[in-house]
Structures are given as C-alpha cells and as structure tokens.
Amino acid sequence: MVARGKNLLVNAFKHRVPASLISLSQATGAQTWTAALPGGSRMVPAVSDDGARVYLGTFWAPAWPAFEADLFAFDASTGAPVWLQNLTDRTSVVEGK
Q: Using 50, 70 and 90 to split pLDDT, how confident is the model at 89?
C-alpha cells in the first residue's frame, strides 16, 4: 500500500487470480478507481514525484519455466493505463496512440 495525495494505492492479489490496482480515498475509504492487471503481482505500487503516474510490475508464470513480466504506468487520478512495457521480450505499448 502507498499513500499519495488524497488516495491510498493498494495492490490486491490472490493466488492464481489476476491482480488489481485499487485507489481508495484516504478520507472515506471509498474506492476511487481500479485497474485490472493480466497477471499476478506482489509488488508495491510506486508513484512519480509529481504524483501524476502510478507504476506497478507484474510477474506470472503461464507455464513453468516460462514467465511473463510487465511494467505498467497508470494515470494516478483516473487509473487509466498510460503505457505498458513487457519486460520478458522488451516490447512496449503506448495507450491512446
């Protein structure tokens, strides 16, 4: 969990279930946005110095010993995906382009 500005950012993960990045209001605990992730993640979200972006990595094994690792950037105020970097094969996807 990371506190930044008015929101708490929580990485929700259950074994063998895709993870979610959840933003909660610090004042009320109400969910402000959620972003679904394609795989599992036990990592702590990181927030940019200006508070505009939230970063979270995922790591999961579709079939051992193969694995997938991705790094996501989200808009901190809306949860909208900004970009994705696949760390397994080094490909990137920029949202909205």
A: confident
- Let me know: does 76 contact 53? Beta carbons within 8 Å: yes
The CA angle 10-5-95, to the nearest 5 degrees, is 65
Mean pLDDT of 68-72: 84
Comparing 23 with 61, the larger pLDDT belongs to 23
Contact by Cβ (8 Å): 6, 22: no
- E-strand ranges in the chain read 2-4, 7-14, 17-25, 31-36, 46-47, 53-63, 66-75, 81-86, 92-94
C-alpha to C-alpha distance for 92 and 83, rounded to whole angstroms: 7
Distance between CA atoms of 26 and 3, rounded to whole angstroms? 8
The yes-or-no verdict on residue 9 having pLDDT over 50 is yes
C-alpha span between 15 and 65 (Å, rounded): 18
The total number of residues written for the chain in this structure: 97
